[in-house]
Amino acid sequence: MKKLLIILLAIFLILAGCSQNAADAPSTNEITDTNEEIKDETSENNEDANKPEAEEDEKAEVDVSENVSEEAAEPEAEEATEEIPGREEPIREEVSEEGQAGEEQGENIENALKIKGLVEKELSLTLDELKAMDDIIFEADFYSLNNFGTTGYTRFKGVKLWDLLKNEAIIKAEASKISIIAQDGYSVEFTPEQVQMEYMDETNPDNKYPMIIAWEENGQEYSPDEGNTYKLVVGQKEPGDINKPQWVSNIDLILVE
Ligand SMILES: Nc1nc2c(c(=O)[nH]1)N[C@H]1C(S)=C(S)[C@@H](COP(=O)(O)O)O[C@H]1N2
Ligand SMILES: [Mo]
């Protein structure tokens, strides 16, 4: 009888042990998961918390105001990156022999101004080719206003974008959107009408400015060491127009859709 009791007790203990293990197993995992989650959140919070400290005050301010004023431009930049088929493709597929030669040299082709999409001729233009377009070159002091009211004048030299699209790339009649996309993904979109129109300067209301692709700023050409050497420059639509966020630097591509 005692033996039977001992055997029953042993069986009971074994069963109890198993079920405890079974119950333990998931809860151990849960604890691990939770710890990982906590760890992840903590490191994210740390990153967020460190960012503003790591940056200059001015830069932090820029970021904040950009989120408010440039909602339109910045999410589009992400979309554009996903939407453009073949954007990362080697350029040799759609450019001239000159382009291919440039690609072998590496640097030159990186610095080409590309125009793709709804145009008769997709282009990849070198700086020398742009400089040779005498009849569409424009140079002037452009006034800028940014989102916290900073103003200034910058001298730019470049080609008129609409003339480039109309005469060189030969934009198709059905085109409705022109995206200026930078190497860092920043992009700004315009309608063909917006690219064609003349802009103003609230401090010189009689002056008229075309939208240009500039390669020279305050008498100095951009250095290819700092990315593609083309900047979109646009004046103001009306007094108070915050135009500086539209000055897209290091242009990678002009996409016509
Ligand atoms: N490629 C690229 N161009 C850009 C931006 C950017 O983030 N990337 N920021 C824009 C914004 S929001 C402003 S205010 C101006 C700032 O120009 P700055 O750096 O010469 O002051 O550049 C504009 N062009
Ligand atoms: Mo900005």
Strand order of the largest sheet: 2-1-10-5-6
Radius of gyration: 29 Å
Number of helices: 8
Q: Any idea what the CATH architecture of the largest domain is?
A: Alpha-Beta Complex
Strand content: 15-25%
Indicate the CATH topology of the largest domain: Sulfite Oxidase, Chain A, domain 2
Main sheet?
A: 5 strands, mixed
Distance between the termini: 91 Å
How many beta strands in the DSSP annotation?
Answer: 10
Structural key phrases:
257 residues, alpha+beta, Sulfite Oxidase, Chain A, domain 2, 5-stranded mixed beta sheet, 5-stranded antiparallel beta sheet, 8 helices, binds the ligand Nc1nc2c(c(=O)[nH]1)N[C@H]1C(S)=C(S)[C@@H](COP(=O)(O)O)O[C@H]1N2, binds molybdenum atom
Write a brief structural summary.
The chain is of the alpha+beta class and 257 residues long. It is 42% helix and 21% strand.
Question: What report would you give on this structure?
Answer:
With 257 residues, the chain is α+β, with helices and mostly antiparallel strands. The protein has helices at 2-54, 57-69, 73-83, 97-105, 107-110, 127-131, 161-169, 192-196, and strands spanning 113-117, 123-125, 137-145, 151-160, 178-182, 187-190, 212-217, 220-221, 231-233, 251-256. A five-stranded mixed β-sheet has the order 2-1-10-5-6. Strands 3, 4, 7, 8 and 9 form a five-stranded antiparallel β-sheet that branches. The longest helix has 53 residues, at 2-54. The model is unreliable at 4-108 (pLDDT under 50). It binds ligand MTE and molybdenum atom.
